[in-house]
Amino acid sequence: DMCAENGVRTIITIGGQRRAMAYEDGANNAVAFLNCIKGQLEQRNVTIAIENMNNRLTDPRFGREDQIFGHWDWGVGVCERVNSPNVKLVCDIYHLQIMDGDLARRIQNSIQWIAHFHVAGVPTRNEIDYTQEINYRYVAEVIADLDFKGYVSHEWRPTPGRDPLRSLAEAFEIMDV
């Protein structure tokens, strides 16, 4: 209600930790909870967007231990089962690449469930430029071809020693298709 009263149309959340719960049980719990709130979300025109996060902790600064929504298909399955225009996903492309890859196909096949995108370089979570493994220009073209109307935000850490404003300008240049 506070979101709707203040003009906030999308609220981002995470799936939370598994704590030894089976992925299927976690999905069932998420579906049950989201089914309880989807009517109010729809009535108030507020979207809840669940963000995927990697749980492969090669560096604890860049992932979250024991996340239930580590694999993209888990979140898509939850959204399909809830089947509400107000229950969607944040597609964090950094985390998606680390956990599942196949970015273009996954984005194309699930765009109806995506409310928002996050971008950052892989593997360092720095700039999205040529020093990283993802071709973000191509990813931006895939998103643009899908007529996506939501936001794409940069969620990265500037590389030490680089001018952060120049890095932002480069990111905008890469993503502006």
Record the SSE blueprint.
Layout: H1 2-5, E1 10-14, H2 23-44, E2 47-51, H3 72-82, E3 87-92, H4 93-99, H5 103-110, E4 114-119, H6 136-145, E5 151-154, H7 164-175
Parallel strand pairs: 1-2, 2-3, 3-4, 4-5
Helix pairs in contact: 2-3
Oligomeric state, counting identical vs distinct chains: single chain
Can you write the helix and strand succession as a string?
A: HEHEHEHHEHEH
Kindly provide the radius of gyration, computed on alpha-carbon positions and rounded to a whole number of angstroms.
17 Å
Strand order across the largest sheet: 1-2-3-4-5
Count of alpha/pi helices:
7
Task: Note poorly predicted spans.
Answer: none
The total strand number stands at: 5
Q: Which structural category do the helix and sheet elements fall into? A: alpha/beta
Shape field: globular
Helix content: 40-55%
Task: Summarize this entry quickly.
The protein is of the alpha/beta class. The protein has 7 helices and 5 strands; from the N terminus they run αβαβαβααβαβα.
